[in-house]
């Protein structure tokens, strides 16, 4: 089995057949599977591999046709783990649910829901696969929903057995415990964003002893008043009228101010708030400037060097050398133009990426045309194994050239020189997909989602082995998801990485 991936179970026979929910959960399977999850945690394994194992335990114990875990973030959810009839959905974005589907986000922790109340495109996909009803269990920490665990069934009636609900709720509580430990989780982005809280406030003596600690201070720092009253303040205090940025042991940042407490000569009031988001934005801005200057420097230097050579030695250069210099200038100028386009496209999260409304198009012709336009080094490494026929896809044909270029460039960069990059495609009843597979360094399970973040690099610093701005996969995800598709990464069996793009059928 590929590290970090759930073993794929045999497909449930739901299309053309009816399979009922088992009368009772498989408790021996539940106990043995849960014990294995605990063993993984005790052995130091964290993050997605353990979450995948938990989902596998759930589908076996509950006799479900498929299981999925959806992790919620600030802009909706994403399927980060799936097995059985839902292994195809990994990486799929899930929009914020509206009434009555948000029964899964409020009310009882475990509910039976018909797929009909899900977003229409998702409901059609599931119904087309013979999945009619689901059990949904909230995964909560301190009243905050950070995800949902779903068990799907083909039954004609809603699965309402209380034992199945109890088992699913138990497994959701296990997932919540994993998130509470923050061991490799959340999987994508920064996870759920907690609403802004009021500023924390403390009154301290001249020697820093806490005399007052308000409720907002408890929420901001996680430290209770009972722990701090008559004890030293756990962070430094700036001089009155100044601002101090301080990093907490858990990695969050506080912006701290202080002032003299009126009417006293020996007390100071200290206010503070969580400034982690602002710190991240400042860091991203500085990183953008650094990355841009670094990535632009190389092609500009080469263009200038060859242009100076042509201008200074034109008469003495033989015609082949002049042609070669002009060719290099043109090639580097093309690279520069593509880089500028990527930078402009990725600096505005709200702006459009690629233009036309989705229409049906021939994915095979599009992939072949895009492959023919790849840079020569990538074109020579690309092994194309496309089927003879494939249903049309629904999306923006023109943008697929950018998607394929970014995926093959990424595959080539992280693979040995000259090693093949494989392009394949397939279709199911609802989607059309293509994959770019390599035999490179592979992707760690905890990085399969972080790789799509803007500017993210697996390595950092001046001694990185793999150059780049960290924008390619970020741009790919934005392009694909705005066509109602999704993109995911996974380790390739035998080594390497598989990048898969799925679009609706046309």
Description:
This protein has 506 residues and is an alpha+beta fold. It is built from 12 helices and 18 strands.
Please supply descriptive tags for the structure shown above.
six-stranded antiparallel β-sheet, 12 helices, disordered N terminus
Q: Helicity range of the residues?
A: 25-40%
* Alpha-beta classification: alpha+beta
Main pleated sheet: 6 strands, antiparallel
Radius of gyration: 27 Å
Mass-distribution shape: flat
Domain Histidine kinase: 291-506
Keywords: Kinase, Phosphoprotein, Transferase, Two-component regulatory system
Pfam family, one: PAS
Subcellular location: Cell membrane
Short description:
Pfam families: HATPase_c (PF02518), HisKA (PF00512), PAS (PF00989). With 506 residues, this protein is of the alpha+beta class.
Secondary structure layout plus pairing:
Layout: H1 27-42, H2 48-62, E1 66-73, E2 76-84, E3 93-94, E4 110-114, H3 120-128, E5 133-141, E6 144-153, H4 162-181, E7 200-205, E8 210-213, H5 215-221, H6 225-228, E9 243-247, E10 253-260, E11 267-274, H7 276-313, H8 319-346, E12 359-361, H9 363-372, H10 376-381, E13 382-385, E14 393-395, H11 400-413, E15 421-427, E16 431-437, H12 472-481, E17 486-491, E18 497-504
Parallel strand pairs: 13-15
Antiparallel strand pairs: 1-2, 1-6, 2-3, 4-5, 5-6, 7-8, 7-11, 9-10, 10-11, 12-14, 15-16, 16-18, 17-18
Main location: membrane
Pfam families: HATPase_c, HisKA, PAS
Domain PAS: 193-230
